[in-house]
Amino acid sequence: MVTKLDFVSNFTVVLLFAVISGLLGVVLYFSGTSGAFSILLALAFTGLIGFAQWYFAPSIIRLITGAREIERAQAPKIFSIVDRLSKKANLPKSPKILIVKNPSPNAFAFGRGQKDANIALHTGLLNSLDEEEVEAVLAHEVGHIKHRDVVIMTIASLLPVLLYYAAIILLNSRSGNREQRNSLAVFAGGFLARFLGQLLVLWLSRVREYSADEFASRVSNGKKLASALAKISYGLGKRSSDSNDSISCLYIGDNTRENPETLAKYLDLSEKELSRAIGKEKRFGFMEAFMSHPLTSKRILALKRLSERKEGAQ
Asked: Which residues are catalytic?
């Protein structure tokens, strides 16, 4: 569900990109550069953004969330669960465990790769979910690490930037001499290309969430993951004012601020009832295309089918 706060946050990111990319676009335009040199310059700039994002993101995430690494003695059960899941995922080493003092129930994985992975758990999640639900959430995050989703999404996030500059360079080269160029049309084309690229990135992000859910269903209890998602998204009151919307794309789920009574409806639904719930969520229509996560009810339905398939195979 796209909230007003989500819209403002995303708009801020777009505005920041517009300022940075606009400056380079102006340089390209007035310098008269074109052809191979422009392409190389755009690729170099995009590569620099990607490297900085990949290298500095873990430190920034720790800073803005206040995530604190804990030792095994502080949470032996959690470490034991993560070690077991990491072996099932064939990870080279178990991820570090961090705690975020935040009453909003959530969790996320981040890092530079499988050997430098972190799983952060909100105190609200540990206080609100039972042990099996916590294990299912951890399995989902381990799934992200196994599939190298952090690295994949970092690379994918460069696509809109590349498409933007590709469109700028292409439109510039086809518009003849400088007097004939329509700078507004050139930059409009560039931002359209970036917009389409961003939709592709968001689609890929939703696919990765389904993939992590599928992994969690295989190595843990899919029904417990479904109930955890329900609690995170539909129950447990309102999102904390301390929640970091700037990293909402990393969270396992988004608290939709629905009232607690909704929780009961989502914990034990028949497929027909859940399909009806999905129908209600479809009132958002095309808005899902602008979300980094699939609609929660769709994820729960997918997990329900995976669990039934798993039980049938046993």
From this structure: 141
